């Protein structure tokens, strides 16, 4: 097995057993990035020199028996909306193309303190508004399983194509959980407040949360133990310390109570995805889990509520990019023309669309009809989940997307298709719940996935159920060969 194909657990064991060094691991990943990222476009910025320096420091610590954690010397990718001191942070936007922060996100600080090695910053939708990465100012990331299809997120593509051992992403309405099974990896969204959002550049602050992309459930649990916990710099974090997430992966699921929401299994769902959900149901029952059909009566309102609130919050958050303090500045004769020219040049179409919609629903004439009403319905959506967890359900089993990864450009100009793609994921962010997506089957060359949704701060039960359902890793076809095949066909 190539060193870049190993899981985090295997790399940790190899480092502890002196089978290889962190520098050897890092050099292998950098070589892999050099070989295939020209095809995939997973990274915006590769931090090769920094990564090698951090790897050497990790090796020196291990030589003296001073390893900081299991992740000491393990290379990762970081989504490009996390601020990284002295490393360019763009949010995949022309607006921040030249932005180099003087501070780092708490999430990255914790990983640095644990000794992790930064390979680079990954591609994404501009300011995380979108779900295919096609709104990126740097072009879309391609799916390692079929390069004519979207990856959804550069971080997912990086982990799937062995360009990083794991990745830290983020999610507002499904940005971690949808790309993960598209690319044949696992995607974990922790509970809102479980992981600090400090210096995670905001899209919709009440819904944004860190996300993890990993080759196995145990790998995700290992990283979650490092980054979880309260943070004085983020008042939305809870006081709950990190749980025994790795230990949860070994727990029996016998006796767990899992709900199967009937509303999620109709209305445009791909037949193969529906089949995968029912196969997962059968598997859980074989292991002694009680699975029952349940209802989320307000789920049909979740998507419109999400788009009203997310657009309103995005409008407020993106208002800071005006050419005055940082980022792009287009000079004009007066400040108002400078604002207009800077924002026109800096923002892409989807970011502009969210700003306009969000400003509209927050306007004095419409705030009661749209924004305030959406807040009330959000409470009803969350109440449906609370009611199920109150009667003993440990988690819910649902689809994560309506079908397979779409082809590149298939949704690029179809706004409604993009906006409805979050139908199975957005409610989780509205309710602040933890959720995890898994690749569960292959349809042709592409993976399709399922989703588990947990009770607030119920990551342990979620990880146990996910570990029980985990399939052997799906492996993508040779990426360079795919590119050559496309070139020959053209």
Short structural description:
The protein has 490 residues and is an alpha/beta fold. It has 17 helices and 13 strands.
- Rg (CA only): 21 Å
Helix content range of the residues, please? 25-40%
Main β-sheet, spatial strand arrangement: 1-3-2-6-8-7-12-13-11-9-10
Assembly state here? single chain
Fourth-tier CATH superfamily name of the domain at 3-253 and 458-489: Amidase signature (AS) domain
Strand content: 5-15%
Number of DSSP E strands: 13
Task: Output the helix-strand order.
Answer: HHEHEHEEEHEHEEHHEHEHHHHEHHEEHH
Mean pLDDT value: 95
Query: Number of helix segments?
Result: 17
Large-scale geometry: globular
Structural class by helix and strand composition: alpha/beta
Low-confidence stretches: none
What is the distance, rounded to the nearest whole angstrom, between the alpha carbons of the first and last residues? 33 Å
Sketch the major β-sheet. Answer: 11 strands, mixed
